[in-house]
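Much of our argument rests on the idea that a fold can be written as discrete symbols. In the encoding step, the backbone of a single protein was reduced to a row of integers, each denoting a local shape. This step matters because it turns folding into a mapping between discrete strings. For completeness, the protein is quoted in full, as a sequence line and a line of structure tokens:
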Amino acid sequence: MNFVDEIYQKARKDPRRILLPEANDDRTLHAAAKIRAEGLAHVTLLGDADATRKRLGDLGIVDDFDIVEPRQAPWLDEFVAEYFSLRKAKGMTEDAAREAMLDPLAHGIMMLHKGRGDGLVAGAIHSTADTLRPALQIVRTAPGVPLVSSFFFMLVGDTTYLFADCGLVEEPSAEQLAEIALSTAGTAIAFGIEPNVAMLCYSTKGSANSASARKVVEATKIAQSKIIERFGPGSPVQIDGELQGDAALVEAIGKKKAPGSPVAGKARVLIFPDLNSGNIAYKLVERLGGAKAFGPILQGLRLPANDLSRGCSADDIVGVAAVTVVQSQMVSPKSGEER
């Protein structure tokens, strides 16, 4: 069974309520139909109800989805009051709060926050910034996690890697880079991937001494110092750097360039020094190397809300929705239950 099949199997065992707030996008509607057919999740669409039902019919999709139109939602006033309360210290007015809660994406995030959904997937027609902003304002970060970051599952043949951060933190400081490494190591453990974490650089173990290389070295030291605090004694997490890509992945090269490294030659988690390198790398591996990319998946939020690439396909949305279901199984009870 490959990694995708394992994720789908886990999702089917305990399907959750997934919110899709881009019902005006055909890929989202096709994905909703497949999610339902595969038994991965219960889907709620958000948008103009009449227009959504008409488009479902035009696409030949059986219309039996829950559709929430924010303007008509019976809980709208409650959501407006909640959002105003959360943001009034930042200058939010009640009128602005109402306008925000009429937007399907922000309304969907509030549904997640209020237990009317277990996870949310968006980004097919919204930028990462537009998707993440209401998530940070309403759902906020998980306890003890100072930074939200993103990762991709990269399926290369029969092997699954984690690439981070490829979609969110543009120029991480050494402290932020260390946090990305720790968060992604935790994600690897949660999804059954070996937490061998390589802090990538154009330099290996001091072969260069530029400011960018020194940042990776510092980030590695910070991350290593926090492994026991984050994961406890006896943790399987191994973090090492700075490592070039070949030293991280190829055993013979790793032994030559970084002898004695616990990670060199067997890394499964690749941490890139900045967003430029991470985003370019995952797209090259996907487009030229034939890998399958799932993501970007957000990590560090209190509840699972995930972003998509605006170039995603309907199948990409299905895959991210299945991952979101599994994340929900890990972090919270089902919607409607006490959180």
User: Anything to note?
Assistant: The chain has two domains: 3-140+301-331, 149-287. The chain has a mean pLDDT of 92.
